[in-house]
Write a structure and sequence with these properties.
Helices cover 82% and strands 0% of the residues. It has two helices and no strands. The radius of gyration is 17 Å and the shape is flat.
Length: 62
């Protein structure tokens, strides 16, 4: 049971730290509210994940 809780606590801790960083440090960044910036914010995680999964797929085929 203890081994199942450890990864959950790690993810929770990292998520809380990221949330606090966005909440308190985010407003100090002067990023303009444009359509392009919104598209970048929405599509970048998907593109990164697709690249990582594609790379792993190629590594497993070899």
């Amino acid at each position: 049971m203890n081994s199942n809780i450890s990864p959950i606590l790690k993810v929770f801790t990292l998520s809380a730290a990221l949330s606090l960083a966005i909440k308190y440090a985010g407003p100090s960044l002067s990023i303009p509210s444009t359509d392009l910036n919104a598209l970048i914010a929405v599509f970048t995680p998907s593109i990164i994940l697709a690249a990582i999964l594609g790379w792993r797929s190629r590594q497993q085929q070899q």
